[in-house]
Amino acid sequence: MKKMFLMLTLACLCILKAAAQGVYDYNVKDDMGNDVSLRQYKGKVLLIVNTATRCGFTPQYKDLQTLYEKYRAQGFEILDFPCNQFGQQAPDSIQQIHQFCTANFNIEFTQFDKIDVNGENAHPLFTYLKKCKGFAGFNLQDRIGKLLDQRFSQQDPDYAKNPDIKWNFTKFLIDKDGQVVKRFEPTATAQDMDEDISNLLRR
Question: What angle do CA 191, 136, 83 make, to 5 degrees?
Fold first, then answer.
């Protein structure tokens, strides 16, 4: 009986340990198509973002770069995943996207290969992120946020209950243990995220 109890306890611990791995369980492809394990970011505070270069929120690239410059020396990384699922606003190749972003916004954080974040072809990383943190709501004081809310509400009055990514520049904040701490919708600004990032870096 004691042996069985011990085995069950060990099994539970193994399950908990596996569940606690968070984003480190996932591999992604870089802008050259090479596999990258997110385990290499252990101990870092991460901001994972789905982006697009022809979107009303595209100028946020500048603010993201400002955040990166402010905190990277303290162990902060931004992982950028271009996605063409929202208004077809990222139609170019990853190489063209990277060239655009460096030329127009001088970005220095890492850009990965284009992916889907919703639907049957959604990358497992984003499926996990959505499972951890559902839709957090648009900022209705923001003009685009208000328009997006109206648009989605017309299509589905209960759209906010669906955890799917709603639009470009949805952001997930990850702590040093690889756990998803917070989700920021596209209307969230760098100022909205600054304090949370700073707090995680100090832990």
Answer: 80
Three-state DSSP state, 180: strand
The 10s digit of each residue's pLDDT in 27-46 is: 999 999 999 999 999 999 99
180/195 Cα distance (integer angstroms): 16
112 DSSP β-pair partners: 30
Q: How far apart are CA 163 and CA 118, in angstroms?
A: 10
Q: Above 80 in pLDDT, residue 5?
A: no
Return the closest-CA partner of residue 53 out of 183, 168, 171. Answer: 168
| Active site positions, annotated | 55
Whether residue 159 contacts residue 2, with contact meaning beta carbons closer than 8 Å, is answered with: no
C-beta atoms surrounding 202 within 10 Å: 8
Residue listed under structure tokens 């979107």: 55
Q: Is 7 exposed, middle or buried (0-12, 13-18, 19+ CB in 10 A)?
A: exposed
Separation between Cα atoms, residue 82 and residue 79, nearest integer Å: 10
Its pTM stands at 0.89
Measure the CA–CA gap between 131 and 165, rounded to whole angstroms.
11
